[in-house]
Amino acid sequence: MKYLLGFAVIAAVLPGFWCACKTIEELDQCAYEISFLANRNIKVPTNDGEVIGMCDNAKKGLKCLADHARECAKGALKSITIKVMNDLENHLHTRCDNPAERAEFLKHVGCFSDSSKADPIRLCADKHMVMMEKVSNFPKPLRLGGACCSSHALRECAINHITNLCSGETGDYFNDMISDIAEENIELVCKEYSSLEKCDAKYDPATWGDLKAIMASEDAAITGQHQYKTIVPIIVKMLKEARK
User: How many domains does the chain have?
Assistant: First the structure.
């Protein structure tokens, strides 16, 4: 989650970023390896070795996306997107290569071993996917706000559930991780919609109401209501259409 939040908002509003270097399916799978929140196939680690293994898979997924950016992006956009990917890579290395950081992660991620706690948290990611697929079909002027505000809604949903189902300390831990990697990039792109409060005040009320209704739902059936596993294919769709 923490990697995709920053990456998603930046990539979703940079026309010309993607080209046909990898298939949609390949990019979707690369991103899926990073997203611990969305990917229910990732085993919750119970020891340091398993944390390292999970980190190695995440590094491979991120390298796939970073290589694609370096090979496909052009001009000034290439510089911007490479900076974003480098930030993500540096953060991942910091969290994964430092034994103390891995131990702290292991301490908090154990809450996800209980499916009764993990499922409501991961449902937030499914609802975000449904929101973003809806955003991708909005009129173009509404897409930036929709992408930004949906990302804020995902963060609030996930952190509130983690805090309530795990602990306030664990909620703070994951919230801080998101802040470390996402806030600078979100502020760069989502200046007008840099918080939920600004979304409430500035985004189209009817459109925002429809999106918030999706995130407010607790219907587990929503897990099967999105086409892709990650937001990357949705980003590709929006960028292709932005150039038309």
Answer: 1
| Pair 7, 65: CB distance under 8 Å | yes
| Global pTM value | 0.85
What is the rounded CA–CA span in Å between residue 198 and residue 191? 9
Dump pLDDT digits (tens) for 51-63. 999 999 989 988 8
* The predicted structure's pLDDT at residue 243: 65
Instruction: State which residues form the domain around 150.
Output: 2-242
- CB-CB contact of 21 with 236 (8 Å): no
Residues 6+ apart with CB under 8 A from 18: 11, 27, 68, 72, 235, 236, 239, 240
pLDDT value at residue 244: 66
Widest CA span of the chain, in angstroms? 50
Regions of the chain with pLDDT less than 70 = 1-20, 73-81, 185, 243-244
